[in-house]
Design brief:
207 residues, alpha+beta, Jelly Rolls, 2 domains, five-stranded antiparallel beta sheet, three-stranded antiparallel beta sheet
Length: 207
């Protein structure tokens, strides 16, 4: 039974990083049946007295269990001390827009413009006027050129057309082509496509 107790205590000590020392002296008044604990370097930790070993098996077991409880408590406190990360705040819902811009399309619901060109004013502010012009086969009479006192910038959005500005050669305009006409310059639209709508964006500057 004594050997089983010793082996049990030795195993418990090893788990704590300690070494069990058991007495083997049987002389009267000696320390037979007593135990002590040393550390890995052989230094006395518990159960040593002036006359040798002094701790009983129960005292050694109680000491080892107490050391284990202390170590577990320190570990638990260390875990509790780790600050927990704060949960990320939920994103705030985006406010609903209070303004709804009106969107229009320059190429939507184009007029037929079979008899005459159709002009639609899109924007007019001091110094600037923007209009859409839809043509289909129309042209400027040679003896009635267009001319205005202010500059005009024109962009062909759709279709095809020809243009001549005073003292210039004829120009062929395709979608995306644009030209600036200086104030006072005579100009002619020499032809526009007859099989489809020709759509112009005209910007009048300084009107």
């Amino acid at each position: 039974m004594a050997n089983e107790t010793t082996e049990k205590l030795r195993e418990m000590a090893a788990h704590r990083g300690l070494k069990l020392v058991a007495s083997r002296r049987r002389k009267a008044g000696g320390d037979f049946g007593k135990y002590g604990l040393t550390d890995a370097r052989g230094e006395e930790v518990f159960g040593f007295g002036g006359d040798g070993l002094s701790a009983s098996a129960d005292e050694i077991e109680a000491h080892l269990r107490g050391a284990a409880s202390s170590a577990w408590g320190s570990s638990a406190k260390a875990v509790e001390a780790i600050p927990r990360s704060k949960p990320k705040p939920e994103p705030k819902p985006k406010p609903k827009p209070r303004f709804r811009p009106k969107v229009a399309n320059l190429l939507d619901k184009l007029p037929a413009a079979k008899r005459t060109e159709v002009f639609a004013e899109l924007l007019k502010v001091p110094g600037v006027r923007i209009e859409r012009i839809v043509s289909r086969g129309q042209a400027t009479p040679e003896d009635a050129p267009m001319v205005q006192p202010h500059d005009e910038w024109v962009l062909l959005l759709e279709g095809a057309a020809g243009m001549r500005i005073e003292d210039s050669a004829d120009l062929r305009l395709e979608p995306g082509d644009h030209v600036r006409i200086a104030g006072g310059q005579k100009h002619w639209v020499t032809w526009t496509a007859k099989d489809r709508a020709t759509v112009w964006l005209a910007v009048h500057l300084g009107e």
